[in-house]
Amino acid sequence: METYDYIVVGAGSAGAAVAYRLSADERNKVLLLEAGPASPRWTTIPIGYAKLLYEPKANWLYASEPEPSTNGRKLHVPRGKMLGGSSSLNGMAFVRGQAQDFDTWSQMGNQGWSYDDVLPFFKRMESYEADGDDTFRGREGPLRVTNPEPANPLLATIIEAAGQVGIKHNPDYNGATQDGIAMSQATIASNRRQSTAHCYLEPARFRPNLRIVTDALTEGAMLDGKRCVGVRYSVHGEKHEARAGREVVISAGAINSPQLLELSGIGQPERLQSLGIEVRQALRGVGENLRDHYAPRTRWGIGKRGVSYNDRGRGLGLVMQALRYAFAQPSMLNAVAAPLRAFVRSREGLEAPDLLLGWVPMLTELGPKGPKISHRSGMTCYAHPMRPESKGHIHITSSDPRKAPAINFNFLSAPVDAELTVRAVRIARSVMNAPAMAPLQLTEIGPGRDLNTDGEILDWVKRVAETTYHPVGTCKMGVDPMAVVDSQLRVHGIEGLRVADASIMPTLTSGNTNAPSIMIGEKAAAMVLKAAA
Ligand SMILES: Cc1cc2nc3c(=O)[nH]c(=O)nc-3n(C[C@H](O)[C@H](O)[C@H](O)COP(=O)(O)OP(=O)(O)OC[C@H]3O[C@@H](n4cnc5c(N)ncnc54)[C@H](O)[C@@H]3O)c2cc1C
Fold this sequence. Notes:
CATH topology of the largest domain: FAD/NAD(P)-binding domain
Largest sheet: 7 strands, mixed
Radius of gyration: 22 Å
Structural class: alpha/beta
Number of strands: 27
Number of domains: 2
Bound molecules: flavin-adenine dinucleotide
Shape: globular
CATH class of the largest domain: Alpha Beta
């Protein structure tokens, strides 16, 4: 039996930060278990994103259950399975969310999670390499964050068009206010992806007190009564046990953290009993409260040649882009997947934006092996509510840790989500039809000019929308009967066991989820260290 002070399960956005901070004190012996391999070479090049989306060696490649809101389609649910987790294959947009998101968490009873409480951790984790107000931005953290220029004229044109419909440019949406349109801040620097594998684990990997084991599938927590004493894991089929003298931190992400709790006998009693799993702690909320962004991609043909990635990403254009990349110039090879975004309000009088629009200067067509760059010149603009109220669930269907859990998103089940999605599509249309866009000679491919009523747009959404890969909330933090962890991220009713990753978010943050997940890892580590002091 191996013995450590701390065991961290999952080396993703949050888990890498937890392991890095805990092992910074050489007196702490830390084990970090990761089910996937070291991050493959594709993760270093930002455009490698496209390849990794369907790469079975580094991606769990989950699929959702069919449901009415998807017209019975199963949605693709990629998750990183490698060092860095989903930070190693994500779209690299860096978005913290709004101050109100965290104030809401605090108002739900989670002491220590207001914006004022989490801001120091957001600052601590980053080195922001652009102008910005140091009240909000950090300069010395492990994660390098940049703010690219709109080098592509297409993006500059969209910013101008947005201004014509009242959406102003915001120089730092992670600063004082989120409102407006801006180039996506990027976890890309020096021409490479800034994953947590690169930023947190590479500097820590030679610490003698940190052991990182890859290809190590954790199969469950070991419990002694109501105390967690370690974990069971397997490497290439060989079984191991590791003991934690102090604590186990599960950071396996919003899909696998609830799976691991259920496999360990922590969850809904009837569900566990029906699978032959002994109930160690009844917690009804495990796997519930699943939230994600469900986003239709509006599609536009561009008559003007040479501006979209469809023209730039082929033949001589691609050679030029590769050369630009080689000389560290802005290029489609080192860009965020959706390089431009706008945070907007669905109606006047709202305290903060509630909708997100994101632009990808390219059209893709769905083939059997995933999306392929289209022969047609164009772009897409996805549009969705940022704080959906629809809740789904994720549960195991077997006691076998290798069997994928069932993912039910239950999208659009809250009527307000349907209403706001239609509103977001209409705002995307208004930007694309603004006068500044005229020289681009756009044609609306989807929804298409003949779909105009709310009902027609909603039917189209159900046919085409996909997630933007932000599942959260399945081990939610709180004080109500459906909460799984308390505000110190300790699993209710079990000692020595915390969950620290996107699954603890009680509600979805206003934007992408990598930055808040890393913040959660940073904050969890501080809480663990404080408890031991
Ligand atoms: C395709 C894609 C694009 C995205 N784009 C963006 C973006 O542009 N900007 C943004 O902010 N967010 C983006 N996200 C979301 C963001 O990356 C995630 O929300 C965030 O990384 C979640 O962090 P986490 O720590 O909760 O989980 P993860 O980073 O997924 O880490 C979980 C880790 O645990 C490991 N693990 C799971 N089960 C086990 C087990 N049983 N044993 C051992 N290890 C295990 C996994 O392999 C993984 O490494 C994207 C996500 C995806 C998938």
